[in-house]
Amino acid sequence: MHVHAVCPLSMNLLIITAASLVALTRAGGALQDLEFQKWKLMYGRSYNSPEEEARRKLTWLDNYRSILVHNVQADQGLRTYRLGLNQFADMNKQEYRKTHRLLTNSTKVHHGTEFTRRKWRGELPDAVDWRKTGCVSAVQDQGGCNSALAFGFVGALECQNFLETGVLAALSVQQLIDCCWACIRASVPMYVECIQSYGGIDTEESYPFEGTPGDCRFNPKTIGGTCSGYALMTPGNEDALQEAVALVGPVIAFIDASHPSFQFYQSGVYYEPNCSSTEVDHVVLVVGYGQEDGQDYWLVKNSWGTFWGEKGYMKMARNRSNMCGIASDAGCPKA
């Protein structure tokens, strides 16, 4: 008879998870009902029928329990990040992926000029945060429009124009939605060509975000920035990505965001061993990097509002074999 050894960490994980589930099973339903009603009020959620509410509540409870179990493990030092209830809490995994699965192969970047790594004589900074320079605009919520690429592109372009002019002008994502079809068939080459065809991109103030496509209302008198091209990073090379973020500015990154751990991320250094480095479905803006509790991370800006993550930001594990494809298809527009 063969006896298989059990990893102590795995055993601890099983014990903690089982204990948490027992505690949750014993918890009164009244408290969970109250939490669900508080969540509905916070996110302005209402449903078309009692049946739909009952179904959504069951999904919410499943997510609620999974989050609690994960956070017990985080409290024990078995996870490097915490989860929390957010606007996706009444969605199951399939619904979340359908709603926020943004990309097709045509969306990914297939051409652009190659980013030339500089002959940097000194050491790169241990930590970078472009927010501290004033070239990163406020986090927004893309809502139901599949405009993550537009938000990432505009965010990177804002900083490049800031470095050229010394003035931060928040640029119009809505122009890309209305004039460049950002909700329908977005791509980096399309954005570059579209902005160049108009002679620039308007400011957010003059052309504010609405979240749904409408008539193109570009105004050449309120241009806030221009785009001359796009530079690609070396695929899969986190060292090249670090150099670009340190020396050039915020970088657009295509990532795998399909997992419940990403859906409910709240704080800490996100590490998801099941993440794919090739099957990517979302876009974020890498605005820095650093280290927390001995864990290297990328600081990324998302476009799901400030209730998600750390006020709209995430720390993604860095130097962990290109986790989630953070460096697989990264690049930066040029002012």
TrEMBL record:
Cathepsin propeptide inhibitor domain span: 36-96
Source species, domain of life: Eukaryota
Hydrolase is among the record's keywords: yes
Protease in keyword set: yes
Alphabetized Pfam families for the sequence: Inhibitor_I29 (PF08246), Peptidase_C1 (PF00112)
Annotated signal peptide: 1-27
An example Gene Ontology biological process: proteolysis
Entry's family note: Belongs to the peptidase C1 family.
Protein name: Uncharacterized protein
